[in-house]
Amino acid sequence: MHNSQEHVTTAALARAVGYSTQQVRDLERLGALPAAERASNGYRRYARTHEIALRAYRALAVAIGPVAARSLMPVLRTASLDEAAAQIDQLHRDIAQSRARVRDALNGLDAVSRDAPTVFEDADAMTIGELAGALGVRPSALRHWEDQGLIAPDRDPRSGARRYAADATTAARITAALRSGGFPLPLVARAIELVREHGSGEEARMLLQQRLSQLAERSVALLAASGRLHALLESRDPAGAEADEAPRHAARGRTASPGGTAPRAGTLTDAGPRDTAARTDAETAARRTDAG
Predict the structure, then answer these.
(1) How many Å apart are CA 180 and CA 276, to the nearest integer?
(2) Which among 87, 81, 56, 34 has a CA at the least distance from the CA of 228?
(3) Is 117 exposed, middle or buried (0-12, 13-18, 19+ CB in 10 A)?
(4) Which of 9, 38, 128, 287 is most solvent-facing, going by the fewest CB within 10 Å?
(5) CATH code 1.10.1660.10 region(s) in the chain
(6) In tens digits, what is the pLDDT along the chain, a chain of 292 residues?
(7) DSSP annotation string for 215-241
(8) What is 10-93+221-271's CATH topology?
């Protein structure tokens, strides 16, 4: 479709971009595409702007995942140019922050490996508060990890308070490193199991290296999408938002993002990113008392 005045059917638009007709209709319903005009016979009629938006969505979905792309597209289409540009900038920042967290996690694993040969005296065992402070997490996160079978602290025979000796401390450090790197608990559990079996953190290191590779792929995909996103912003009304679309999609935005705010760019429900996992663990168990 090259003529900006030309209108095509749903099937023709889907064929041009490589989607099914149902996908095109669904994306229009979700606000990823502008509302189509209707011909006298009631059939949808799509213009060049629809193709631009559909290609932008497809490129964005490769970079950040389809769920996040569906949430973000209405914002990019209808918000002010300043807000749309800020959302795109946030995508790049999110990747950079995720990469920094994974690298910090790798540094944490290096520290665990360096400390492994050190003789651990019983007197060196830490309380839950001491270990939480050393790892930069809440005591409730350590309790949650214990509930999930990731760490197994000893108990003081008199007070019953938790005491974290060598094995429990090592497991907690590896768990904290992987969670800060964005990994879900089942993968963390597998890595801890291998550490217990083989005494090595290489499985955890491999997972973090894979995560770095995934982030690099996202960066490249986002760069590839930049041309499509530029075309999308250029195709909008000169005033910025598509006025007739804004009220309808503002309501959708409130559904997708509690409180009515625009969804923060790069927030993946997929792969993603779970980069606030350690904080989530703490919040899951936050209602418990922090007494040892």
Answers:
(1) 7
(2) 56
(3) exposed
(4) 287
(5) 98-211+280-284
(6) 555 568 999 999 999 999 999 999 999 999 999 999 999 999 999 999 999 999 999 999 999 999 999 999 999 999 999 999 999 999 999 999 888 878 877 776 777 666 655 555 666 789 999 999 988 899 999 999 999 999 999 998 889 999 998 788 888 888 887 887 778 888 888 888 877 776 666 777 888 888 899 999 999 999 999 999 999 999 987 654 554 444 444 444 433 333 333 444 333 333 333 344 555 565 555 444 444 4
(7) HHHHHHHHHHHHHHHHHHHHHS-TTSS
(8) Multidrug-efflux Transporter Regulator; Chain: A; Domain 2 (1.10.1660)
Cβ neighbours around 273 below 10 Å, total: 24
- The C-alpha atoms of residue 83 and residue 78 are separated, in whole angstroms, by 10
What pTM did the predictor assign?
0.64
Please give the CATH number for the structural domain made up of 98-211+280-284.
1.10.1660.10
Residue 160, sorted as left (phi over 0), alpha (psi -120 to 50) or beta, turns out to be left
Q: Cβ of 22: how many Cβ atoms within 10 Å?
A: 10
